[in-house]
Amino acid sequence: MTAAPTIEAVTNRIRERSRASREAYLARVDAGERRGANRAVLGCGNLAHGFAVCSPAEKAMLAENRVPNLGIITSYNDMLSAHQPFETYPALIREAARQAGGVAQVAGGVPAMCDGVTQGQPGMELSLFSRDVIAMSAAVGLSHNMFDAAVFLGVCDKIVPGLVIAALTFGHLPAVFVPAGPMTSGLPNDEKAKVRQLYAEGKIGRAELLEAESKSYHGPGTCTFYGTANSNQMLMEIMGLHTPGASFVNPNTPLRDALTREATKRALAITALGNEFTPVGRMIDERSVVNGVVGLHATGGSTNHTIHLIAMAAAAGIKLTWGDISDLADAVPLLARVYPNGLADVNHFQAAGGMGFLIRELLDGGLLHEDVQTIWGEGLRGYAVEARLGADGTVAREAAPLESGDPKVLAKLPQAFQPSGGLKVLEGNLGRGVIKTSAVKPDRHLIEAPAVVFHDQEELNAAFKEGRLTGDLVAVVRFQGPKANGMPELHKLTVALGILQDRGFRVALVTDGRMSGASGKVPAAIHITPEALDGGSIGKIRDGDMIRLDAENGTLDVLVDESELLVREIPTVSLAHNQFGMGRELFSGFRALVGRADEGASAFAA
Question: Which parts of the sequence belong to the Dihydroxy-acid/6-phosphogluconate dehydratase C-terminal domain (predicted)?
Fold first, then answer.
């Protein structure tokens, strides 16, 4: 099926814009394929080091290049709930590979930090940059040139984007992404939010707050709200890097293990030693990237991906822009209501029909490219299914249901929750930014109010606690961009601004920092670029300036005469406190090299 005209037009625009860079990238993929995997080009000493701990039979097979060898890149650690299940995956993958006549080795590990742990803390300033560190760490593991394909174990925030960048950098190799799944449902997200507000208002204590948080985040697996982690899993499936139906199956279940074994066998099947060679650098193209953006809009996904998708695409020589993302948002309706865009969590989304239902609806509506390559080898229609556990313990699949299991969570196209996607690009005399509208009530899409300026989130929260924030306002939190301090998530603002809005004030946030997939009911213009430290007009705003945020028309302006704005100077703000502690001194090079948010906020050369 041919995609709808807007989808085709945006795809063609990206393709034309990317022609030179994509051709150069594919030439590098060609060169990597000609060099070949691997053991054949390694000296005897190199190879001996590479398979020293393998069994004699495995050594013999690898020495003669008779069987494929999978390189496992893992983000396992046992502090973070989403990544703890990966502890058992290498043994499972090695055994599945052996049964299929191949070999698998852990090629390397990558760091995996959690914004949920570091939010509001100094360590959060490493978070965005960890994406590029993860890409480099994975490259170190794969640089041994021992592998015919790579299997990537990652779930959350910056981990999956970093792994995708690494996979595409090694584009001559097939790449299969293997998820761990979401934790089972705990305390409902809306109840958790109410407890947070009560704590912020001083109506309950820390013990009650910790009890509620612990009931929400209570076991192995991803957090169940629809933030960046679960947006990652949606992207990997709709872009064809997961096996069909793999994204939202709970950890430590027979089906989860069966999916992991199946993914291993699939990775072996698509190497150059088989008949279905599928190098990831050719598999992921402009159509795949557009499908990812469409999925992001249809599900009201994380605003972080307005940064990450640009950086991921760039790793394949594809030039995606905020303009493309905005135009696709206008063409794609919202089909999912998952917290913070609704009361349901991802387990409810999965039970209502999940990715198979969503993909089928979007395909039938002409909103996805069906004729893409995937690791499954069937085009995207092969993903319009539900995965089940077969009687023999392997994965069985059936067509996705024709009707949603819960229309309040997952809708058919004719009953879409809103006609456009959950993200909007804003432009005006303050530069460019992004807003997530899917959780914001329509009567809050236009806010015009005086600015109250802060230089970090602690200043704002202190002003709130002291009762200095009254009346309508636009909170401007600046010097939070990638060059200033690594562009941290500003989650600590959510509660205070939410309380002010609940008191009847018209409230909005404008910042060159991030709010991620957790941004909710308060309109938040985020990722403002140019950032204050880079000369952006956000640095020129003064207390009392009227700011107009219009999410319907996609504009963001400070209502000051242009001639005055031009001559205003940006105040000198000391950022010394951001330079040291919790490892921040090691990231000074990243702060110096990083690009703009609308260019992917990457430290890598374009």
Answer: 408-601
